[in-house]
Every structure is written in structure tokens, then in C-alpha cells.
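Researcher: We are triaging several targets before committing to wet-lab work. For this one, the compound of interest is zinc ion. I'm pasting the protein sequence and the ligand SMILES. What I need is the predicted three-dimensional arrangement of the protein with the ligand bound, expressed as C-alpha cells, so it can go straight into our comparison scripts without reformatting.
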Amino acid sequence: MTVEVLVEKFTHPLLPEAVNRYRLNINGATVFIDAGLEAPQGGVVVVTHYHWDHTLGLARARGLRVCMSPETLKSIDPGRAMDSVKTVLEAVGYGDLAEHARPYTSQYGEIKEALAWHDIYTLDECPALGVEAIPCPGHSGDHHCILAGGHVFLGDNYVPYTLSTTLTSPMDYMGSMHRVLSLDWDKAYPGHGDPGGKADLAGWLTKVLERKMARIAALARLAGEGVDMRTALHRMYPGVEGATLFLAARNLVGYARALEELGVVRVDRGRSPWVIGPP
Ligand SMILES: [Zn+2]
């Protein structure tokens, strides 16, 4: 099997870095990994995860064959997107700012509507031969990594230009990436940024996990005395503001969940901001 890979990059004012869509030629057939921001021309589209920058192209096209997991299909929903923003903002006591998220979450209305224009397949019944999807949760719960030939497409589980990738579940992420590293492939393709080899991915991942573990440890120390999540946010990310503060808050909620799963803290979600303390 020969797989040729072409990258198509799209920029958008809401994105700090161009988003990649990969156009694969597998023995003469066209397969896109993710939809990017514009209409993919023909072929089969395989979606790594629901985030709008990887799916908006579906709303710019008609009659595509699209493969995605049932969880991705469910997640393309403006109400659900808004709810997950609200949860993060309530966790850190900024629930009243949820309305500001509308420009980011409203894209899902358009994408959801467009799903009716296409033939949707699950990843198991995907008609793209030569492509294998493996569950890869971490950056988002629905995330899949796609293997084709000696290539692996990692979506937003690999963003080599930064170490501050957002994770909804650091523990799931660690498991996913160790599984990916154990598989047989030569080149890893990120959702944003440039591809790399196995050593590049392993080196980047070590730095990311070191950083995440340091954050988790810092939150565990604060939780030792009991702290509300708003105070924890500002102590751990001093001087951070705006959209970056929201991304920090999203990570913080993931760290709290990780500590909770380890049984070392208790999270009181009954009020806003949440309070994290000893179990
Ligand atoms: Zn993403």
C-alpha cells in the first residue's frame, strides 16, 4: 500500500496557528484526515475529533462520505459545546461570563446542520480502505488517532509548536500517547504545526507531561489546605487573562479530575467556584 500525504493549512482569526487538513492518496483513492475550514473536494473524510477547526469544512460542502465516532457525532452540538464551557466557567467562579463563549460555540450549529447533507459512517464501517482509527482520548473525550501506512495522524494530541496543549483528561492522555508510541509508524502528523518522527513526538511528549505533572502537583499542594478553584487558577497562572485564562481554567478542571480519580482530593461541585480539598 502506498500512501501519499499532502497538507492543506487554513488560518482563522480565532486560531493562534493554522489548522492542518491532510489529503491522502491511498492507491489512487482520496482520503482527508479532518475537514479543516473549507470544502474538501471529493473523497472520504475521517474526523479525529469534534472541535470546530477540524470540522467546519463539512458545512462548506455537500454529499461527502464522512467517518467519525458516535461520540464525535454527539459532541457536534452547540448546546453541548456551551454546556462544557459553562462547566469550566462555573468551576472557577466565572459562570456569568459564559455568554462570551458564544462566538466559539456557535460554529457547532452550522456544522451540526451540515451533517444531514453527508453520508455519515462510524469509524468501524468507514469506506476508506487502508485507514485504521484507534481511540485516543485526552485532548477531548472523543479523540481518535488515525493510522495509514507508516503515518499516524494525531489531531490535537500533538501540537509541536507549544507545550500548553489543553487536555480534558491528563490520565487518559498519558495512556493514549503511550499506546500510540508503542505502535509501528514512522511519521506523526499534528493537527497544527509540522510533522515529526517518533523521537520528536517522544521528546515533546516528555516535556508536555513534565509540565502537566508539575501543574497537577501544584494543585494537589493547594488542595491540601482546601482552596476554591478561582483562587487556585490565579495562584497557578498569575497574570494570565482573557482567552488564555479560559484555556488555563479548562486545564485546571482536568487536573482536578485527575487528582479526584487518584482519590487524593475531594471536589465540591455544589457551589461556584468549586472547592477542592482533602478527601
Ligand atoms: Zn481540538
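Researcher: Any quick observations?
Model: The CA atoms of residues 59 and 113 lie 8 Å apart.
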